[in-house]
Amino acid sequence: MNFKMSCRLFSCVIATCFLFLVSCNQEQPIATDVVNIPATAEKGIDVSSLPKIKFSENIHDFGTITQGEKVSYEFNFVNEGNADLIISNTYASCGCTVPEAPKEPIAPGKTGTIKVTFDSSNKTGMVTKEITLLTNCIPAKIIIKIKASIFEPKTK
Fold first, then answer.
1. What is the distance between the alpha carbons of residues 145 and 132, in angstroms, rounded to a whole number?
2. Which of 15, 59, 132, 150 is the most exposed place for a label (fewest CB within 10 A)?
3. Each residue of 52-63: pLDDT tens digit?
4. What's the first-to-final CA gap in the chain, in angstroms?
5. CA–centroid distance for 152 within its chain
């Protein structure tokens, strides 16, 4: 390969790289018809065709408990919507709180429970913990809470 041919090849490679880099910085709009997020749809959504979770209470107060005590509570709910309710994930604001949710879909009109266990070890005073449920409802994120006043016993 001669020098002239090498320069042309090198120029082509540089030009291709330049075009590639320039095109990467161009923002390409995404057509709204390919994005299927019901909660943000431009035309709205008929919420009457969705599940709807309704708790008998969203906050439970354990009252005063002794430090180190493990307490549990079951939050009762009903699916007041017109489609199966799916709880895809649950998580708590702290590792000391463990939620347990039904794995199977909850049919319209049926009830279910979210069991929450709280370990008060190494905690004192007033505490509030959030439990987040990810569902197929609108809104998709539902938050329930537990709270307690933790009494630290005096050591002799």
1. 9
2. 15
3. 999 999 999 999
4. 92
5. 33
Give the C-alpha separation, 42 to 34, whole Å.
Answer: 12
- Beta-strand ranges (E) seen in 1-156 are 53-55, 59-66, 70-79, 87-92, 97-100, 111-119, 125-135, 141-151
> How buried is residue 119: exposed, middle or buried, by Cβ count under 10 Å (0-12/13-18/19+)?
middle
pLDDT tens track for 7-17: 566 666 666 65
Residues 67-77 have a mean pLDDT of 97
Residue 67 buriedness (CB in 10 A; 0-12 / 13-18 / 19+): middle
Written as six digits, the tokens of 14 are 């540089």
- C-alpha distance from residue 62 to each of 44, 74, 109 (Å): 40, 12, 29
